[in-house]
Specification:
Blueprint (H helix, E strand, L loop, with lengths): L16 H37 L10 H4 L6 H17 L2 H15 L2 H18 L8 E6 L6 E9 L2 H6 L6 E7 L7 E7 L4 E2 L4 H9 L19
Antiparallel strand pairs: 1-2, 1-5, 2-3, 3-4
Helix pairs in contact: 1-3
Length: 229
């Protein structure tokens, strides 16, 4: 026997209006946050470049002197044009001679020499399009057997390191990044047989490291559906 106050076991409780609004709000945050943060970051970087470059530009070349409006991004344009001109000159014979002369002068300054060489190596590593970019994402056992870490093959070990390492085969230079900042990490040398190459790209592996394991490449994550174009 049932009464009007008894709940129907076959009736499902529908989510209330507040729960629906909360779910919509969270979905909106997920959509808006990446776009908003990206726009804010780009806008901030452009403003920083403008604030650094525009004071160095003669007033007669600054559009603000003629239209009375501060156009954000003008400094970025001047910076790009200046960089292109400098690169074009540096590739010529006169430019290379000037660079060699300037570097010889810098080499005679103890403190400046160390700073310049460090910054130059970082710039060449980050911006130069050469074989020094990472080749493959790999899986290694680090810091001990049974614990696995994501790494990136930078190159094959050469010179004294390869000659004096007590290994039967080849030796690979593997960069093991830290989370969530992948620009810092450890340079380790592993025998080739101890390195497992992954099918995921270097970019996908970097996302995995930055997100602390929260973002997996969909094609390799059985828990996530594959995305079809």
């Amino acid at each position: 026997m049932t009464t009007p106050f008894d709940e129907d076991p076959h009736r499902r409780n529908k989510p209330g209006m507040f729960a629906g609004l909360r779910a919509s709000f969270l979905t909106g945050i997920v959509v808006i946050a990446p776009v908003g943060l990206t726009v804010w970051l780009i806008w901030t970087v452009i403003g920083w470049v403008d604030g650094f470059v525009l004071p160095l530009v003669p007033g007669r070349f600054n559009p603000e002197q003629y239209i009375g409006i501060n156009l954000r991004g003008v400094g970025v344009i001047f910076f790009l044009l200046f960089t292109i001109v400098v690169g074009w000159i540096a590739k010529g014979l006169i430019g290379r001679s000037l660079i060699r002369y300037a570097e010889n002068v810098v080499d005679r300054m103890p403190v400046v020499r160390s700073i310049y060489s460090g910054v130059k190596q970082i710039a060449e590593t980050v911006f130069a399009q050469s074989e020094r970019s990472f080749e493959k994402a790999v899986l290694i056992q680090y810091p001990r057997k049974g614990i696995w870490a994501i790494g990136f093959i930078s190159t094959e070990a050469r010179g004294e390191v390869a000659e004096k390492a007590e290994t039967g085969g080849g030796l690979l230079s593997v960069f093991v990044p830290t989370t969530p900042n992948p620009t810092s990490g450890f340079l380790l040398f592993f025998p080739e047989e101890d390195v497992i190459e992954l099918d995921m790209s270097v970019e996908d592996a970097a996302k995995l490291v930055i997100s602390a394991g929260l973002v997996y490449p969909n094609p390799k994550d059985p828990q996530q559906p594959e995305l079809f174009n």
